[in-house]
Amino acid sequence: MKRSILIHPDPRLKKLCDPVADISDDLRKLADDMLETMYDAPGIGLAAPQIGVLNRLIVLDCVKEEGETPRPLVMFNPEIVSSSDDLNVYEEGCLSIPDQYAEVTRPREVEVAWMDQNGNAQSEVFDGLWATCVQHEIDHLDGKLFIDYLKPLKRQMITRKMQKLKRERARA
Ligand SMILES: [Zn+2]
């Protein structure tokens, strides 16, 4: 089932999310809904707070090439175990901040540990777009948005645009 995505500014996007203790069928269903919502948007990552659920759960799939096999990843309680000193700049966007993009600098490589939908511990080193995406999504679980990395003026400009968008949507 597709869920609706919260648009910034929203207090739920600023919250520290709670860890997940056991992977229940409800949580598995939630992860499926998040993947469906993400692919439909379309996007390459989605965090539970973006649909108003304050649990430490993210989904991602950074395979973008036509014809390549999709690689949906579901991560409960994802944690960055180590990051490279080497940095990388990507133009980031966010499904909660539609049509706004800005360059963000982050570690080029990160090792992430998480629990998968079967309750198994996993870890993997990500680089390139995957590394950027997984860091962006984990930030959401700590109430942090990519615009928090920008200069205040730019951030305020984007926030004002989003407030206007929300007013227009509420009126429609
Ligand atoms: Zn985002």
Key phrases:
single chain, 3 helices, binds zinc ion, alpha+beta, 172 residues
Q: How many strand units?
A: 7
Overall mean pLDDT stands at: 97
Which percent bin holds the helix content? Answer: 25-40%
Which molecules other than protein and nucleic acid are bound? zinc ion
Poorly predicted runs? none
Question: Quick one: overall form?
Answer: globular
Account of the protein in words:
- With 172 residues, the chain is of the alpha+beta class.
- The chain contains three helices and seven strands.
- A hairpin with a 2-residue loop joins strand 4 (87-94) and strand 5 (97-107).
- It is globular.
- The mean pLDDT is 97.
- The site of zinc ion has 5 residues, from helix 2.
Q: What is the structure about, briefly put?
A:
The chain is of the alpha+beta class and 172 residues long.
Blueprint (SSEs and pairs):
Elements: H1 25-40, E1 45-47, E2 57-60, E3 73-83, E4 87-94, E5 97-107, E6 109-115, E7 121-127, H2 128-141, H3 152-171
Antiparallel strand pairs: 1-2, 2-3, 3-6, 4-5, 6-7
Bound molecules: zinc ion.
